[in-house]
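dumping this here before i forget
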Amino acid sequence: MPKAWIRERKNEFYYKKAKAENYRSRATYKLVQVNEKYGFINLRDVVVDLGAAPGGWIQVARKMTGRHGFVLGVDLNPIEPFPQDYIRTIIGDLTDPNITEQILSFLPRKSDAVISDAAPNITGIWEVDHARQIDLATKALEIALQILRPGGNFFVKLFQGDLMDEFIQTAKSHFTEVKFVKPAASRAKSSEMYLLALGLKTKFEE
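structure:
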């Protein structure tokens, strides 16, 4: 990994802020900023974080939901455990056909919000990275449609590109409101965007 890139990252504002505030990831602030504006995660909510390692989003989701909420983190890699009994983490593959049942078995009830900052291993080839990101986001959406309660919310990372339109239309068919957001904590030169889908429709509404 180039030393200049590492130096830039370590000197970057949100990286240093995360270190100072004992958050596991600079990405923590992306979720904080969007939730402050749109309030899609609230006290007592059940939240599922897909692609949760190293656990930065879990840390702030825990604060948003409080001790009477519940947060489940899912990732291919182990996540350093949390001491609170209302936070659970499991090793799971979003592409596993049994992942939805596995997630539901840990939840006290259907979730109020599903969030995903999952990203593929970056190749540097734009078309490949964009397609892989859309595939991950699609898997996250498929899971969300099964584990969200009616009226629940979905927040997912995307990479800008020509495959986004179909994904957006699919999201719009299932949720009452769909927004695009780019948090201030996202690097300006990054192609990442976030889709926020509010209010899962019932089958009748679809």
